[in-house]
Amino acid sequence: MRRRLPKLSDQRGITLIELVVATGAGAVVFLGLTMVVIASMHQMTRITDRVHATSEARTVLHRIVTELHSACVAAEVAPIQANSTASSMTFVYQTGSGAALTPVLRKISLSGTTLSQTTYAATSGSTPQWTFSSTPSSTRTLLTNVSAVSESQPLFRYYSFSNGQISSTPLSVPLSATNAAFTTQVNIALKVSPDKRPVTDVKGPAIVQDSAYLRFSPPAAVTSAANLPCE
After folding, report:
1. Per-residue pLDDT for 123 more than 60?
2. Chain centroid to CA 72
3. How far is it, in rounded angstroms, from Cα 89 to Cα 138?
4. Which residues have a Cβ under 8 Å from the Cβ of 73 and sit 6 or more positions away?
5. What is the band of 231 on the pLDDT scale with cuts at 50, 70, 90?
6. CA dist., res. 214 & res. 161, Å (int)
7. Residue closest to 72 by CA, chosen among 221, 220, 224, 212
8. Is residue 174 reached through a cis peptide bond, with omega within 30 degrees of 0 on the bond before it?
9. Calpha distance 115→122 (Å, rounded)
């Protein structure tokens, strides 16, 4: 008896078309997963950069406010200097821990998107009149990618003490000699952006702000009608 061989049509498999379709479907799934991973990495980078930029800005702001709190070197000395503006503040700052004052003149200024600090050493004089060098003893960059929060909320705003409290209206800038002598509080606000990346992050900029109160004594303890700073 002759044995019957199985028909070739009974040998199941996949056609070329089915292979192409399956490969295409796999590629689509793989591409989708890749896009999800890339988007997640970009989002993580945005968050990390924003946190880093905000942390650096807070550190710099804390340093400036701390120096302003040490700007009352004497009751007769006005810390904030005349001609300070919304983007540039000059103040007298005491360094060292000795009995004798070692004053320096600090200038914090915003040029473009760079916040820098310039220091001028005292060359002669004594309390409350010092002469400072016109040549900086040091200049350093404090922060980059910085800007003012808005036109109505610039980097620096200066306030005087009036009617038992800080005035709600900032002093006009640049500060005149009279307004500088009465500046009792400085509000600082800045907007910092992370380093630029290939992917734009519209929510990247963060606002950091603080204020420095320039007085030795609380308002209730001040008896002078002049309400000068550093009383």
Report:
1. yes
2. 24
3. 16
4. 79, 92, 93, 94, 101, 103, 127, 230
5. confident
6. 10
7. 212
8. yes
9. 23
Report the b/e string of 115-147 with b at 16+ CB within 10 A: bbbbbbbbeeeeeeebebeeeeeeeeebbebbb
| CA–CA separation, 136 and 56 (whole Å) | 25
pLDDT value at position 80? 93
DSSP state, 197? Answer: -
> Based on the number of CB atoms within 10 Å of its own CB, is 89 exposed (0-12), middle (13-18) or buried (19 or more)?
buried
The answer to whether residues 97 and 70 touch, using CB atoms and an 8 Å cutoff, is: no
Cβ–Cβ contacts within 10 Å for residue 75, how many? 14
Element of type H or E holding 93: strand 88-95
Three-class secondary structure assignment of 158-173: EEEEECCEECCCCCCC
Q: Which two tokens stand for residue 76?
A: 């007769």
Tell me the residue length of the chain.
231
Q: Which helix (H) or strand (E) holds 130?
A: strand 129-132
Q: Round to the nearest angstrom and report the end-to-end CA distance of the chain.
A: 124
By the 8 A CB rule, do 103 and 93 touch? Answer: yes
What distance in Å separates the CA atoms of residue 216 and residue 214, rounded to the nearest whole number? 7
